[in-house]
Design brief:
Oligomer: single chain
Shape: globular
Order of helices and strands: HEEEHEHHEHHEEHEEEEHHEEHH
CATH topology: Spore Coat Polysaccharide Biosynthesis Protein SpsA, Chain A
Number of strands: 13
Distance between the termini: 77 Å
Bound molecules: uridine 5'-triphosphate
CATH architecture: Alpha-Beta Complex
Number of helices: 11
CATH class: Alpha Beta
Structural class: alpha/beta
Number of domains: 1
CATH superfamily: Spore Coat Polysaccharide Biosynthesis Protein SpsA, Chain A
Helix content: 25-40%
């Protein structure tokens, strides 16, 4: 009887609540970034002024989130150190901004015991989330403007789990989780199905999952029911596929920019694009690129 009562209260909380918590998985091996990641987490590689994970924490903060759980693991201790208050006396704009954010957010850490995939990493957030809908932000991906902020607004309207997607060229669908959808509203689609890294022929669309989600807590039960898939890892897309058979899910087409820092080409492109736009470094970098191109 008591358990039933609890369940009812929790369901009400899910329906009324604005998203307040975020999980940032950052425990992956970073094989594609070797040898940079031999002794350094890929989430700590710099993009112009800041390590990637700082962009991600700032995105959560500027989306209104104040409780953040970072999933770390083997070789990832530098991430925890980065989110201590700075001991440097010299004022530096981006370090000061982080210190100010740290005054307002609680950052928790938990270690994924074995790198068994993204779905497995998310599972470690279950007690932190405590039956609330939560934001999930991949620790190696930057979105500008903050995609999570837009997802939270959409979640307020639909109360469903929402996956941010972007259109990718047909020859790239096999690199991503792809959604099959029905259009509902401008930019918001009802998900019919999800497929992890399909071949070009099998892909149901060119809408790729980009690493930002709002998930209802039912996802944890679905992860428990997910068998290891590709690379013998627990795939989050497979768990979301189960969730989609149980409740409605939406896909939101993000129109901003996404930078994937998990591979060298995109990491370098992100550095160049954001450095060119930077108020402090932009002019110098542009001149330098022009000079290099003439050689
Ligand atoms: P990736 O899919 O890029 O996996 O992870 P990876 O293992 O880090 O990279 P490669 O394939 O070896 O180069 C996407 C996000 O999920 C986290 C990663 O840290 C990254 O932020 N992740 C992945 C985990 O936290 N745990 C895992 O077991 C796998």
């Amino acid at each position: 009887m008591v358990a039933k009562g609890n369940k009812k209260t929790k369901t009400c909380r899910v329906n009324l609540m604005r998203v307040r918590k975020a999980i940032i998985p950052a425990a992956g091996m970073g094989t594609r970034m070797l040898p940079i990641t031999r002794a350094q987490p890929k989430e700590m590689v710099p993009v112009v002024h800041k390590p990637v994970i700082q962009y991600v924490v700032e995105e959560a903060y500027y989306s209104g989130i104040r409780d953040i759980l970072i999933i770390t693991g083997r070789g990832k201790r530098a991430i925890e150190d980065h989110f201590d208050r700075s001991v440097h006396s010299k004022a530096e704009k981006y370090s000061e901004e982080l210190d100010r954010i740290l005054d307002e957010v609680n950052i928790f850490f938990v270690r994924q015991k074995e790198q068994r995939g993204l779905g497995d990493a998310v599972r470690y957030g279950e007690s932190f989330v405590d039956e609330e809908p939560f934001a999930l932000l991949l620790g190696d991906t930057i979105t500008l403007p903050p995609c999570t902020r837009e997802l939270i607004d959409i979640h307020q309207k639909y109360k469903t789990s929402i996956v941010a997607v972007e259109e990718v060229p047909a020859d790239k669908v096999s690199m991503y989780g792809i959604v099959k959808v029905r259009e509902l509203d401008e930019g918001v689609h009802l998900i019919d199905d999800l497929v992890e890294k399909p071949s070009v022929e099998e892909a149901p669309s060119n809408l790729a999952i980009l690493g930002r989600y709002i998930l209802n807590p039912e996802i944890f039960e679905c992860i428990r029911n997910t068998k290891p898939g590709r690379k013998n890892e627990i795939q989050l897309t497979d768990a979301m596929r189960i969730l989609n058979t149980r409740e409605r899910m939406h896909a939101y087409v993000f129109r901003g920019r996404r930078f994937d820092i998990g591979n060298k080409m995109d990491w370098l492109k992100a550095n160049i694009e954001l450095a060119v736009e930077d108020e402090e470094l932009g002019d110098g970098i542009r001149e330098f690129i022009e000079e290099v191109m003439k050689r």
